[in-house]
Amino acid sequence: QVQLVESGGGLVQAGGSLRLSCAASGRTFSSYAMGWFRQVPGKEREFVATISSSGGTTYYADSVKGRFTISRDNAKNTEYLQMNSLKPEDTAVYYCARGWASHVLTTINGYNYWGQGTQVTVSS
Predict the structure, then answer these.
(1) How many angstroms separate the CA atoms of 50 and 99, rounded?
(2) Distances (CA, A) of 58 to 25, 50, 53, 76
C-alpha cells in the first residue's frame, strides 16, 4: 500500500513563496510519475504540475508556468513543489499524487494514489 503525506502548506502574502513536500512510502517511488493537483471548494480538482519517474521531464499548467517548479528526490522518496510569486488565486488545497506510469500525466485519471492534501492560502 502506498501512502503519500504532504506538508509545507500555510498562509502567505501575495508575492511570497512556499515549498510543498510529499513523502511517499514503499519501494517503487522511482518507477512512477508524480504530480500535484489543487482544489477549491465547489470546483473540480485541477492539474498543477507533473514530473516523470526519472525527473527528466516536467509539465505545468499554464496558470503556474514560470512561477512553480516541481522536482523529486528518488533517494528520499519525496517530491516537491516550489511555489514563487504566489497569487490569491493560487489559494486551494494542494494534493500530491502518484501516477500509474513513468511518463508525465496531466489528468486525474492518470493517478491512482493520493495524499490527504495541504491548505495553501495566499492573502492579498
Answers:
(1) 9
(2) 22, 6, 10, 19
